[in-house]
Structure prediction request, 286 residues.
Amino acid sequence: MAKKPDTLWETPADEALRWERGTDLAALDHAATPGWAGKKGDGERLMAERAPELADLQERLFAHGRTGGDRSVLLVLQGMDTAGKGGIVRHVVGLVDPQGVMHRGFGVPTPEEREHGYLWRVRNALPRPGYLGVFDRSHHEQVLVVRVEGLEPEDTWRQHYDELNEFEAEVAASGILIVKVALFVSADEQKERLAERLDRPDKYWKYDPSDIDARTRLPEYLAAYQEMLDRTSTEVAPWYVVPANRKWYARLAATELLTGALRSLDLGWPPATFDIEAEKARLAAS
Ligand code: AMP
Ligand code: MG
Prediction:
């Protein structure tokens, strides 16, 4: 008899992907499928199965927020260009009701944003109670692009590790469950994905000539990501590192992590705040 698809998680995704400090990021196998013993088709089947559960869990969260609850979830997506952040938004976050999602992409700070500290725009984008917040890039760019491009002196950006951890501790204490997912594709896979952007009219809009500049600094980005993972993976906001050469796996893993996070909130449906029988009687009489 065929195995039921979800038994193919030999190790639960949150265990298999959770970053352990000091792991060598350079040794990551970008084509691996940690924890998952199945193939692409099995993964796609499980994702299809998870979809209604994910939607149900997110609706419970939304209902919880609407009835005075203070919990929310923040999915942080980090990764270099072409790592598949947008694909996670479309294919995983896209499984839930958009009215309950607060999505925010973080690009080069605008002139207005520059007038404030770097956490200002991040605080403004935090999910309100009941919402699923999604960050496409995040405050962690302050120790990634800022470091690699030398946008701040080293003694300034070095202070950010502690600041990021303090910030996230505060965010978590306010009721926001933080799920940080870092996606990594190999240099060759990135080259192929960029080539596709240059070959396809429907992908030109995603191409940014500065992506090639970032490519020439891959070793510096690797070092920056390594230190980010080692220094900002905390108990309240751990990093999950997802090998992303196989898009189906990255999406499956993100679905599993998000589903697990929502399940852990253990939210039921809010009870009626009215007298059900009385309302039924009123309805019948109307
Ligand atoms: P994309 O994700 O393709 O829309 O690109 C967003 C760009 O904004 C990337 O090149 C990031 O490196 C850049 N970016 C994001 N956050 C910052 C930041 N805090 N300072 C400078 N550049 C940033
Ligand atoms: Mg881009």
Summary: The CA atoms of residues 171 and 210 lie 32 Å apart. The two ends are 55 Å apart (CA to CA). The pocket of magnesium ion (ligand 2) is lined by residues 81, 208, 211 (CB under 6 Å).
